[in-house]
């Protein structure tokens, strides 16, 4: 920040003086906050090539006070809790600026619609592939590893290419509209025609040749349209939630707004979980009340897919409204602009960044950890509820309970962020997942000795494992939605635009399914090595411990880097604000004095003139 020139001794008059009128009756407040102050001419101070500011010569009415220029930058005005020079205070509603509300409310509604759809799609996809004829729960690891992951990688490559040629608005619509069209077409076209388009005879013949151990891979061929629905539902979570929504939220919000409101986005979203869970349960029970010969599941799909399409169009409308009527925040102009890069260059750049690697570790570790517990739990769930109606109805209750728990966590998350900071919030999710996972695996491993105690509660060990696993998933997902996701998205904000766009595409689209596929691969290896999932349970618990410890280490490293980037960004913003100086007239009655003390703006500086004689006016 510039040092202010200091004058010493008597002030000398300029040659050829002219009389100027200065309205000394105006107070400092009126002069400071005037929208366009008049600039009188005259001789001005200058030092080392800095811009000149006019001085004021008041009328001499006897003993007049000596007046001085005091340079105040916007940063100092903001630090004093006052609006910067030339800026009016923004109108507020309930203590929140209306401009902020115009961003936060539509974002909350968008998140509500997106997660409402995702809950319906997530609960439906498992019922489709698990309960279909010729399929079973064994198909899920193969789907995640050999179908979902390649499609996610392909989408990331396509998204990277499109991000270089399309605007942000065009990219958003180009990505989300095919999802909406597919889910509408599945409910009204693909599922009614599934009996004609599924190669069941070919799958049966191949199964007779290859044997029952290939039931899972062949089921992908047998019910390919259901598997395509499964993958599209998974990609909705990775693409629409992580890339489109959070990318848009990061684009239009500041870090301060994010810390205050990101955790609260989930409040409306988890109300959506509660209501969408009730919706799934309603349609699941609807099938039981239909007459014979009526395909109740087809009717349920039509109803649920109609809701998905309607809310998808609502998301597009909210996106259009925000882009049309809400101003974008001003970002630091000194950020390094990254050149356009090809696909391989983008991947190399992302891999070379420790910041992105730590973010990727967080996402992959969560995917592996939750998959190690969740797939084991779903196998118990399938055994307890073999009927599609019962399975879907239980998942509806599960989604509702998840919404209630997450809603409660959202209320606590803002306090956690404000009181303990980003680092503590980022470590809560792995800690919760580790503790609840230990409880779940312990119940499976020691279910026999605990059978009398469990029977006294009116439950079988299988039902107890289902309930404990459900609680584990509820607590883990609530911690993810309320803390893990906001932490992850906040970490993108200080990055430059190129790293932000391509980093999110690589991490959220590839690393998310990579974590799930990694967990599936671990389980497949354990099953082939030890003979069954039950025999490999102790080893899965040990792997879970290692993964969570690596997760905590990455969170600690990312916390250090995130804090450094935030300080750098704040410093750049302060320097930009300091580039505009504001002349403010101050009065010092009855004596000569310096224009400003060095300690005001540069307390460590010596002579601001660099040893040169002081300027006189």
Describe this structure in words.
The chain has 617 residues and is mostly helical. The protein has two domains: 93-327, Up-down Bundle (Growth Hormone, Chain: A); 340-575, MFS general substrate transporter like domains (Growth Hormone, Chain: A). 69% of the residues lie in helices and 4% in strands. It has helices spanning 28-32, 74-79, 98-131, 139-165, 168-190, 194-197, 200-210, 215-222, 224-252, 255-286, 296-325, 343-351, 354-384, 388-445, 451-456, 461-490, 497-530, 537-578, 598-601, and strands at 44-45, 53-54, 66-73, 92-93, 96-97, 581-588. The protein has a two-stranded antiparallel ribbon with strand order 1-2. Strands 3-6 form a two-stranded antiparallel ribbon. It has a two-stranded antiparallel sheet with strand order 4-5. A hairpin with a 2-residue loop joins strand 4 and strand 5 (96-97). The longest helix is centred in the C-terminal third of the chain and has 58 residues, at 388-445. The protein is globular and about 75 Å long. It starts with 27 loop residues before the first helix and ends in a 16-residue tail after the last helix. The model is unreliable at 1-14, 19-85, 333-339 and 584-617 (pLDDT under 50).
